[in-house]
């Protein structure tokens, strides 16, 4: 029984972390740690997943892409059906609410959970488009995600050092390093406001981050 409960917690934590940062759905693993072989997607587990993802207070305040939320929920319900379980009514209600929304906002948020003794969250405001206002600096690229993960795995490389990041975009990598508090000083560089290639919006988004 305790083993099944732990597996359920593992599923919820795993999916929550992937969902919050809008990880590619094609790479999302619903069978993490072999949990489905032990407890399956029962109604209680479905409710936990929903409350920690779509219905998360963080998502309500700083929503990720509506299209991503719909795709995630659709995939989750598909996995539940394939596992031979009944789908919780709240999942249907959440999906109906999402598909009834009138339009997609031009900006959304992504949330990156960082574990360093305690769990902290980096929230970034981004454009929904890879290229916006003539720049690619209004969203986090996969390279920044990979670099952030490398920095976390090699944080000793930065201990007590001054770090200058050239072209920080919305600031994922820099904030990731600061979360581990290994850098004694971290400086970001961005295009100046006077530059015709530097939308003021980048600076405003970065300031909020």
From TrEMBL:
Pfam families: FAM86. This is Protein-lysine N-methyltransferase EEF2KMT isoform X2. The gene is LOC112465605. InterPro entries: FAM86_N (IPR029426), SAM-dependent_MTases_sf (IPR029063). It comes from Temnothorax curvispinosus. Keywords: Transferase. Residues 11-96 form the FAM86 N-terminal domain. GO terms for molecular function: transferase activity. The keyword Kinase does not apply. It comes from the Eukaryota.
């Amino acid at each position: 029984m305790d083993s099944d409960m732990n597996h359920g917690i593992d599923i919820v934590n795993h999916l929550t972390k992937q969902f919050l940062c809008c990880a590619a759905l094609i790479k999302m693993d619903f069978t993490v740690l072999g949990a489905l072989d032990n407890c399956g997607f029962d109604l209680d587990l479905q409710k936990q997943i929903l409350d920690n993802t779509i219905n998360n207070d963080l998502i309500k305040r700083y929503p990720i892409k509506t299209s991503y939320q719909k795709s995630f929920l659709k995939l989750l319900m598909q996995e539940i059906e394939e596992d031979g379980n009944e789908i919780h009514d709240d999942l249907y209600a959440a999906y109906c609410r999402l598909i009834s929304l009138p339009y997609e906002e031009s900006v959304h948020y992504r949330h990156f959970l960082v574990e360093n003794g305690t769990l902290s969250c980096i929230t970034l405001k981004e454009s929904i488009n890879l290229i916006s206002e003539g720049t690619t600096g209004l969203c986090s690229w996969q390279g920044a995600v990979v670099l952030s993960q490398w920095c976390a795995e090699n944080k000793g490389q930065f201990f007590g050092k001054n770090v200058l990041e050239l072209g920080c975009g919305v600031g994922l990598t820099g904030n990731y390093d600061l979360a581990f508090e290994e850098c004694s000083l971290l400086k970001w560089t961005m295009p100046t406001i006077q530059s015709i290639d530097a939308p003021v919006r980048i600076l405003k988004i970065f300031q909020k981050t």
